[in-house]
Amino acid sequence: MESNNGHCQVDLIFSSDSPPSDPKNQPVLIVGQAVNLDKIEYSQVQHKLEPRVSQEVFRKGRQGLHPRTGDSVISLYLNSVTLASLPARCSRHNAPARPHSLASVVKNVSSGRSETIIIVCPYTDALASASAVARSYPLFSMKSPKAQKKVKVRVEFIIVDSDGKELDFDLLQSVADGVRMTACIVDKPCNMMGVSHFLQEIEAVSKEYNLEMSVFRGEQLKEMGLGGIYGVGKASTDQPALAVLTYMPTFSYPETTVAWVGKGIVYDTGGLSLKTKTMMPGMKRDCGGAAAILGAMCVAAKLGSNACIHAVFCLAENSVGSNATRPDDIHVLYSGRTVEINNTDAEGRLVLADGVVYAARNLNAQVIIDMATLTGAQGIATGKYHGALLTNSATWEKEAVSTSLISGDLLFPLVYSPELHFSEFNSFVADMKNSVADRGNAQPSCAGLFILSHLGFDTTCDWLHIDMASPVHLGERATGYGVALLTLLLAKYSDNGMLRSLVGAWE
Fold first, then answer.
1. pTM of the predicted model, to two decimals?
2. Residue of 66, 104, 108 lying closest to 88 (CA atoms)
3. Which of 59, 189, 355, 499 has its CA 20 to 30 A from that of 366?
4. pLDDT at 210 over 90
């Protein structure tokens, strides 16, 4: 299932049709909550099970599931027909689709051959379920090649409450592809996904979808006044960059202008405030925010939008060298505000501060969403599965949290109180320091407020900050977090029927 070019040979296909197959040759996983599995008839899956599994065996298999426990898996025919139930319990802060449980089941049950996954769920769970399956089949691998042909994994749905609504399989496929691409970028090490490599990925998307692309790099950043991005990345031989992809509606004047700003630290050594040997491995994932907005831009460009969308990539390698930023250095950021560096490992906020100001000043964005693997404290504040949300808009806070439950990319709000927290950055010689005085005082909130301070606390822009340092990965693998979330956050500006109906689920 792997090739020597570093990409796993799995084609993941979301299919509206359901051709018959013999499970001996094409294994089948049927998965859903027990209450939903009980709603389907044998005739709906018969063409996938015969001649190996009879109606009686299927009935007894359903009876053997334990709806009140966690994941329950039963084999109906060797390891080729599997029936699995998802947990019945779901708290108000978890996605109803149980995407993390679904991903775990798929990963553990997958046969490694061409196979079919049948998801039995309500209509509103389909998008989150598609994303969950996508993250179970990562693209990147550099293991030695094996003599195996490419396999195809078909994903089909049985919707238990359609009410006449039909799934948009182009949407599901686009989101799944975006999730896998995003995870692939995050999984690649810096020698394969440095700043120059990332720019090549952006350029490829620009050409595929005919999007306008701008790049500012190296000394040009310094000349433009982008002192945050330049200061973080100037020590690397692979020079830092600010890149912008722009999508414009084809047939209408844009309803609004939205900017997604992604932190793209392709590797974070910590700079001169060097990370330890145990903390540094895994820092290839510090580009997860930038990777997510690239994946989401692919979805937006393919499906179309009534909004003008800018994806702003803040790319740098936080390296060590004779030209590295020192603690005590003072940088002038794009906002014109001065920052005293007291921790070179608090670099993400510096590049994002430049990015959001560029989005407001140069791109006239009315809605700015920055996404970043910003703080280790995010995992302490909101855990491994929920990104941390900070925003100056109570309306957007409510919408974003509700949307996250439908997308499966979970969010939970942080405390927003600049008057109580921004004093943590007080400096005697500059407008602010870049790291807090008290690391025990709402650190993820403070880090987000640093970014907003460069826009100005009185900005008229709606600003959302998403810290996803922990959800960006699960164990050793990237999750593709953010693609489904960003796609749904702009559903109100889409003509896509399924996106609009999913938004209507929480309105």
1. 0.96
2. 66
3. 499
4. yes
